[in-house]
Design goal:
Helices cover 34% and strands 19% of the residues. By secondary structure, the protein is an alpha/beta fold. The chain has one domain (2-145): SPOUT methyltransferase, trefoil knot domain (Alpha/beta knot, 3-Layer(aba) Sandwich), CATH 3.40.1280. The protein has a 7-stranded parallel sheet. Helix 1 (11-24) runs parallel beside helix 5 (130-145).
């Protein structure tokens, strides 16, 4: 299982996702440009000492990211999707793609995703924090594929 962050805006959210991924042995793909200077200092506060244990792959653009993913499915988490993530059948090598906190993903990225999933929420709310969304869906994907780390 992989997580991909499309042009992330907020360093603490990115750091939190990196920390979670390190704890769960998941690779994080950062698709640039970021809304902050890319680097350890940007992630250090939220990621704490987990930065050294994390697997981060940096991609200079959406196009370079696509060149490296081979035959993996891109699963976009989106408030514009129709299928709840709890109804989806994940595969071990899926890539969970999350958009920018401020704008999501552009239409071409949305259309390129193999599947688009949403987290069911009450109608009066707009969206969850990106790190919380990543944790919820990653947890379900790891459960379905039996990929949680051995304890």
């Amino acid at each position: 299982m992989h997580i991909a962050l499309y042009q992330p805006d907020i360093p603490p959210n990115t750091g939190t996702i990196i920390r979670m991924a390190a704890c769960l042995d998941v690779t994080v793909h950062i698709i640039e440009p970021c809304g902050f200077p890319f680097g350890e200092k940007s992630f250090r506060r939220a990621g704490m000492d987990y930065i050294d244990q994390s697997k981060i792959t940096r991609h200079l653009s959406w196009e370079t990211f696509l060149e490296t993913i081979e035959n993996r499915r891109i699963i976009l988490l989106s408030t514009k999707a129709a299928m709840p993530y709890t109804d989806f059948k994940f595969k071990e090598d899926d890539i969970l793609l999350l958009g920018r906190e401020s704008a999501g993903v552009p239409e071409d990225v949305h259309n390129r995703a193999d599947h688009r999933l949403l987290i069911p929420m009450t109608p009066k709310t707009r969206s969850l924090n990106i790190a919380l969304s990543a944790a919820m869906v990653l947890g379900e994907a790891l459960r379905q594929t039996n990929q949680f780390p051995e304890i």
